[in-house]
Amino acid sequence: MLDFELCIPTKIYFGRGQCARVGEIIASRGYRRVLICYGGGSVVRTGLLERVKSSLDAVGVEHDEFGGIQANPTSERCAELGHYARERGSELLLAVGGGSVIDTAKMAAHCVRTGLDPWDYTEHRAEPSDSLPVGVVLTIAATGSETSDSAVLTNTALGVKRGLSSEKNRPLFAIMDPELTMTLPPYQTACGVVDIMAHMMERYFTRVTHVELIDRMTEGALKTVVGNAPIVMHEPENYDARAEIMWAGCLAHNTLFQTGRVGDWASHKLEHELSALYDIAHGAGLAIVFPAWMKYALAHDGEAKLAQFAVRVFDVPVSGDDAADAAEGIRRLEAFYRSLGLTTTLTENGIGDTDFGRMAERAVALAGGTLGQFVPLKAADCEAIYRLAL
Ligand code: NZQ
Ligand code: ZN
Questions:
Q1: Three-state SS for 352?
Q2: 3-class DSSP state for residue 135?
Q3: In whole angstroms, what is the distance from residue 306 CA to residue 32 CA?
Q4: Phi-psi category of 320—alpha, beta or left, where left has phi over 0 and alpha has psi -120 to 50?
Q5: Using one digit for the tens of pLDDT, what is the confidence trace for 213-239?
Q6: Considering only CA atoms, which of 273, 302, 322, 272 is closest in space to residue 201?
Q7: Pairing, β 150-155 against β 160-165
Q8: How many CB atoms neighbour CB 25 within 10 A?
Q9: How far is CA 34 from the centre of its chain?
């Protein structure tokens, strides 16, 4: 196990009806003027925006609104949010939505007082300082952005999707009410499940040994998601199953499961290239890329950990042949994704081998020359993984 430091400062308010407390939570911290950030309109349709505003009104917290943040959010829209917050004198950005809204708020928060562009931070031309606080009312269990240290934006001019990891990205508080996720379309629920599992698997596939506690916690969390996902797909209003998935999504990406080891993250980087170019939903892209990465890892000295995953998470009987058990685990993972209504190949999404070279080069370049830890990848390896995903 490696040495580590861990501080997850975001205060979590978890459970039914917690969003009614948002005004009290903000006022008790002394903020008097907030900017409510939201996406393409689901919070308007579900009535959540009105509930949030009423809660703020009840305690005299002034508020402005900034909507229209799209999925796979752009750096350009994020810069607009930063300008608007400066103009309005906002003291806190309140993200009401999913990863796209939260990430936009996180990155805009760094820009409000400094006047810099979000891309200055993703490119490390500046480090976040003097940032506005961000509060979250979460509406989708997926990215874990509600407590994570990361934020991801797409620069449409450059066609590049890029994340920034910084402790300054951790929100001040996160309101997590599983009931808010009951209005999600099945496709978004499924994409969330895939992303949650991917955040666990990126950290699970490591060459660092003696990480048994975190391995077993991760396996338990993965099994919980695999067990509850079919329930939420068939009974979208099942509170208990929604709650299990929502809490798993947060734990999956708040750094706890990374303690004592290094993660791989190649699948995420390969997926970001896909969503930057084809605007595919992040979870949908991961359902395609992760099994392909596993097949590549299996052929490159990854069979022992893959077999452990297969046996402990997907109940594959131990045969004594790690490679065979690992292959069966990958088959079961793909079958699980398909049972959620997702596809597991690029071909099914109309994507062929036209941009693989460019995507592979860029993923490797962004990673500084070698991508991933469990299996270090060069551009040719990445291309091979995209081909395995066809
Ligand atoms: O935009 P609206 O109208 O609100 O609709 C959204 C959006 O279309 C809808 N939705 C959300 N909550 C809903 C709802 N519809 C009905 N009822 C609700 N309760 O769902 C759609 C997807 O929302 P989005 O925020 O895009 O989803 P997600 O949370 O999966 O975020 C994806 C983004 O986060 C990034 C991804 O790359 C992608 O850009 N990631 C962020 C990470 C982080 N900050 O830590 C880590 C991840 O690995 C990921 O890269
Ligand atoms: Zn992810």
A1: coil
A2: strand
A3: 51
A4: left
A5: 999 999 999 999 999 999 999 999 999
A6: 302
A7: antiparallel
A8: 22
A9: 25
Q: What CA–CA distances, in Å, run from 258 to 79, 178, 314, 341? A: 31, 25, 21, 29
| pLDDT tens per residue, range 32-49 | 999 999 999 999 999 999
Is pLDDT at 159 greater than 90 in this prediction? no
First to last CA, the chain: 37
Pocket, ligand 1, Cβ cutoff 6 A: 39-43, 46, 71-73, 97-101, 103, 139-140, 142-145, 148, 150-152, 180-181, 183-184, 188, 191-192, 195, 253, 268, 282
Rg (CA), the chain: 20
Report the C-alpha gap between 305 and 227 in whole angstroms.
Answer: 22
Q: What is the model's pLDDT at position 379? A: 98
Neighbours of 66 (CB within 10 A): 22
Structure tokens at 209: 């040994």
CB 37 within 8 A of CB 96: yes
Quick check: 382 pLDDT over 90? yes
For residue 100, report the distance from its CA to the centre of ligand 1, in Å.
5
- Residue 61, pLDDT above cutoff 90: yes
Token couple for 230 = 């079919």
Q: What average pLDDT is seen over the chain?
A: 97
pLDDT digits (tens, 9 = 90+) for 71-96: 999 999 999 999 999 999 999 999 99
What pTM does this model have?
A: 0.98
Smallest CA-to-CA distance from 86 within 104, 61, 111 is with 111
Residue written as tokens 């979870």?
Answer: 283
Give the whole-angstrom CA distance, residue 171 versus residue 153: 17
- Bridging pattern class, strands 92-97 and 33-37: parallel
Query: Distance, CA 207 to ligand 1 centroid (Å)?
Result: 31
